[in-house]
Specification:
single chain; 313 residues; alpha/beta; Arc Repressor Mutant, subunit A; D-Maltodextrin-Binding Protein, domain 2; 3 domains; 5-stranded mixed beta sheet; 12 helices; 12 strands; 21% strand; elongated
C-alpha cells in the first residue's frame, strides 16, 4: 500500500483507539462524535484488511495485527510531532508553565523543597502541581497529561523515557527513649515493633498481606535472605506519617536515608544504620515520549537532575 493513498488522520485514530480500546473514549480524546470515530475504525479495517479491535468479554481487544502495528505507529507519530514541534528556546525566567508531577511523598519531601527553591531563583513564574501515585495512571503519563512521574518502580512501559535521579541506602529512625538505643543490633531490631512504609509505582494501592514477604519490599526481602522476619505492627504508604510514628518509644521505622535525614535535627529521634545489609534503591523519573523533545520539559528534567545531585545521602 502506497503512503499517498493513506489518510494519515486514520493513523492518529488508530493510535488513540489502541490506547483507549474504546470507540467512545477515543472519540472524546479527539473531540469527535462517536459515529465519526466508528466510521474511522471501519475505514481502518477496510484499509488494513483486519478487524483490529474485537469485542470480547474483556471489552474491545486488539488483534495480533493491531498489536504489531501499535508500537510502529506510536513511534512514527512521535517522530512526526518532534519534527513539527517549534524549537524555540524555553525562557524559564518568563515562563508561566505549570508542571504536573506525580511523586511519592518520599520524593516530594526529600527532593522538591530544593527544586522549589531553585525554581524561585530561576523561574519564579513556574508552578508545580504535585500529585500522589493514586492520582495518576499509566495512560495519563503516556498521553502527556502528567509531565513526569518520580518514584521507585517495579515495572515501566517500554515506551516511557526514564532517568535515575539518585540511589539511596536505608536508615533506621526511632525514639531516643526507645529501650534498644544502647543495644541496637539484629536481635533487638527483630524483637522490636516496626512501621512498614512504601509506595512504589503509581495507581491506586491495595492492602498488604503481612505474610507475603515478596511484596513487602526491600527491607523484608533482605531479612528473608537471613531467614529472619520483623514484627510489623503498622503499615503505611506515607513517609511523613512513618517519621512521626518513629517518635513513639516502642517503634522503629526503616526507610530511605534521604527521608530519614529530614529528621536529623529532631531532638527526640535518632538515626542509625540498619544492623543488616539492605540493597540500595533507585529513585527514578519517567515521562512520555510525547514530551521527550519539548524544550520546556527538557529544561525542567535537567533542573531536577542538577538539584538532586546536590542533596547528600
Amino acid at each position: 500500500m502506497k503512503i499517498d493513498r493513506i489518510d494519515l488522520n486514520l493513523l492518529v485514530y488508530l493510535d488513540i483507539l489502541l490506547r483507549e480500546r474504546s470507540v467512545t473514549n477515543a472519540a472524546n480524546q479527539l473531540g469527535l462524535s462517536q459515529p465519526a470515530m466508528s466510521n474511522g475504525l471501519r475505514r481502518l479495517r477496510d484499509m488494513l484488511g483486519d478487524p483490529l479491535l474485537v469485542r470480547t468479554s474483556d471489552g474491545m481487544t486488539p488483534t495480533e495485527r493491531a498489536l504489531e502495528l501499535q508500537p510502529v505507529i506510536r513511534q512514527a507519530l512521535s517522530q512526526l510531532e518532534k519534527a513539527l514541534q517549534s524549537q524555540s528556546p524555553f525562557d524559564a525566567a518568563e515562563s508561566n508553565r505549570v508542571f504536573r508531577i506525580m511523586a511519592s511523598d518520599y520524593a516530594e519531601s526529600a527532593l522538591f523543597p530544593q527544586v522549589l527553591k531553585r525554581l524561585r531563583d530561576v523561574a519564579p513564574g513556574v508552578t508545580l502541581d504535585i500529585m500522589t501515585p493514586s492520582d495518576v495512571s499509566f495512560l495519563d503519563v503516556e498521553q502527556g497529561k502528567v509531565d513526569m512521574v518520580i518514584n521507585r518502580f517495579d515495572s515501566m512501559p517500554q515506551s516511557f523515557h526514564q532517568k535515575t535521579i539518585w540511589s539511596d541506602s536505608f536508615s533506621c529512625l526511632f525514639s531516643r527513649h526507645n529501650p534498644i538505643i544502647d543495644h541496637f543490633d539484629l536481635d533487638t531490631y527483630l524483637q522490636a515493633s516496626h512501621v512498614w512504609v512504601s509506595k512504589t509505582g503509581f495507581g491506586a494501592g491495595v492492602g498488604i498481606n503481612p505474610l507475603d514477604v515478596q511484596r513487602l519490599g526491600w527491607v523484608d526481602g533482605a531479612l528473608n535472605k537471613l531467614d529472619k522476619k520483623r514484627n510489623i505492627t503498622v503499615f503505611t504508604r506515607h513517609y511523613q506519617t512513618a517519621m512521626l510514628l518513629a517518635e513513639q518509644d516502642d517503634l522503629i521505622v526503616t526507610l530511605p536515608t534521604r527521608a530519614a535525614k529530614l529528621r536529623h535535627n529532631h531532638k527526640d529521634v535518632v538515626i542509625k544504620e540498619p544492623p543488616f545489609p539492605i540493597p540500595e534503591i533507585e529513585l527514578k523519573m519517567a515521562w512520555s515520549p510525547l514530551l521527550q523533545h519539548n524544550p520546556g520539559h527538557q529544561w525542567f528534567r535537567k533542573l531536577i537532575s542538577d538539584v538532586a545531585q546536590l542533596i547528600p545521602q
